[in-house]
């Protein structure tokens, strides 16, 4: 979900229509998230506009494919507009409940979309932005791309299908990305299988020109892949996570987060000591509860279908505003900006395994 960026948004329907731009050129539906001042953080109105447009294009024989992008120079999408969800909860409204149900439905629709989707992941792709792109058939990154599921930093867990796509990253890399919330760049995104193609940002204009001139044959996905193969590459050298893989696979396979942090400080694997110490410090700044629930959720997600992963995330969502650390995290980082969240529990040592397990009670009984 999360974006550490927010604006109050606008209640005018005319204005919200302009927050998602849609046009069809050469049989391609182009969708642009158009809140560049807010790093294209998505609101419920934007979710609904995206869903409406995708539903219409799915049935339109004139549209062969969809391209998804963000406006401005900085971000594809920095996540959900978390401030509006915080305000909803504090005011006793239900926006935060409706938002997750509809956002997840949109993400799932992209995973199952009947026409190929090309996501141009230029700039920040965080939280809810990852939810929009991970179901796309073709995910393109640039040298400006910064991908992350940073939810634990505000006391939340990596949702929008994160419980499905993170555990399916090779080894324990996805567990590391979810529990730590760190950002990765293009080479690591390709290495982790969270992106498919790399193209320099200043060549996106050329890509657009060639999309406008693309000749369509029987299989639109192959036509798009053929075009990308002439402009972009599918691997980059020297992915930092490749070198750290032995250490990450060791530490993030340990049973629980307190154990992970303890081992990061005490055990050296390969040449990873500096990284391990930095990672331990980072984890100790995050919400202990959010990390504990995230670790359990991701390990369960390894064995669940995509639909059941979204159902698990909704199950957690319905408890999280009352029982989790999100409201306090948003207060500390976005509202009061004192950057001193009072996590509950305050330390990893105080994290109780039964408390973590209690968030999954009920989901276990639903037959998944």
Automatic annotation (TrEMBL):
<dbReference type="GO" id="GO:0003860">
    <property type="term" value="F:3-hydroxyisobutyryl-CoA hydrolase activity"/>
</dbReference>
<dbReference type="InterPro" id="IPR029045">
    <property type="entry name" value="ClpP/crotonase-like_dom_sf"/>
</dbReference>
<dbReference type="GO" id="GO:0016853">
    <property type="term" value="F:isomerase activity"/>
</dbReference>
<feature type="domain" description="Enoyl-CoA hydratase/isomerase">
    <location>
        <begin position="28"/>
        <end position="360"/>
    </location>
</feature>
<dbReference type="Pfam" id="PF16113">
    <property type="entry name" value="ECH_2"/>
</dbReference>
<keyword id="KW-0413">Isomerase</keyword>
<dbReference type="InterPro" id="IPR032259">
    <property type="entry name" value="HIBYL-CoA-H"/>
</dbReference>
<dbReference type="GO" id="GO:0005829">
    <property type="term" value="C:cytosol"/>
</dbReference>
<keyword id="KW-0378">Hydrolase</keyword>
<dbReference type="GO" id="GO:0006574">
    <property type="term" value="P:L-valine catabolic process"/>
</dbReference>
<dbReference type="InterPro" id="IPR045004">
    <property type="entry name" value="ECH_dom"/>
</dbReference>
<protein>
    <recommendedName>
        <fullName>3-hydroxyisobutyryl-CoA hydrolase</fullName>
        <ecNumber>3.1.2.4</ecNumber>
    </recommendedName>
</protein>
């Amino acid at each position: 979900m999360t974006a550490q960026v927010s604006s109050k948004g606008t209640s005018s329907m005319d204005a919200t229509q302009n927050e998602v731009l849609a046009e069809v050129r050469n049989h391609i539906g182009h969708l642009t998230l158009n809140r560049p001042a807010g790093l294209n953080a998505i609101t419920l109105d934007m979710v609904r506009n995206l869903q409406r447009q995708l539903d219409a294009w799915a049935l339109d024989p004139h549209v062969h494919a969809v391209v998804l992008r963000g406006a401005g120079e900085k971000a594809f999408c920095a996540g959900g507009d978390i401030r509006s969800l915080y305000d909803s909860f504090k005011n006793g409204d239900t926006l935060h409940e409706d938002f997750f149900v509809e956002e997840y439905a949109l993400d799932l629709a992209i995973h199952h979309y009947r026409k190929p989707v090309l996501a141009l992941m230029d700039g920040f792709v965080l939280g809810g932005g990852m939810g929009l792109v991970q179901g796309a058939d073709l995910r393109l990154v640039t040298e400006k791309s910064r991908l992350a599921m940073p939810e634990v930093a505000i006391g939340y867990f990596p949702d929008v299908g994160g419980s499905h796509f993170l555990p399916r990253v090779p080894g324990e890399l996805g567990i590391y990305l979810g529990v730590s919330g760190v950002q990765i760049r293009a080479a690591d995104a390709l290495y982790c299988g969270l992106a498919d193609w790399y193209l320099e940002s200043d060549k996106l204009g050329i890509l657009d020109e060639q999309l406008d001139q693309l000749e369509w044959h029987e299989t639109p996905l192959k036509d798009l892949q053929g075009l990308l193969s002439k402009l972009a590459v599918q691997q980059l050298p020297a992915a930092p996570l490749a070198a750290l893989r032995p250490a990450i696979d060791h530490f993030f396979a340990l049973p629980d987060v307190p154990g992970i942090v303890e081992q990061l400080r005490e055990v050296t694997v390969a040449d990873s000591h500096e990284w391990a110490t930095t990672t331990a410090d980072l984890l100790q700044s995050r919400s202990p509860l959010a990390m504990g629930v995230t670790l359990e959720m991701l390990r369960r997600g390894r064995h669940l279908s995509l639909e059941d992963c979204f159902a698990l995330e909704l199950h957690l969502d319905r408890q999280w505003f009352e029982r989790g650390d999100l409201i306090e995290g948003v207060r500390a980082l976005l509202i009061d900006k004192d950057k001193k969240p009072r996590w509950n529990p305050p330390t990893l040592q105080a994290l109780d395994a039964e408390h973590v397990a209690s968030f999954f009670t009920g989901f276990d009984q639903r037959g998944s």
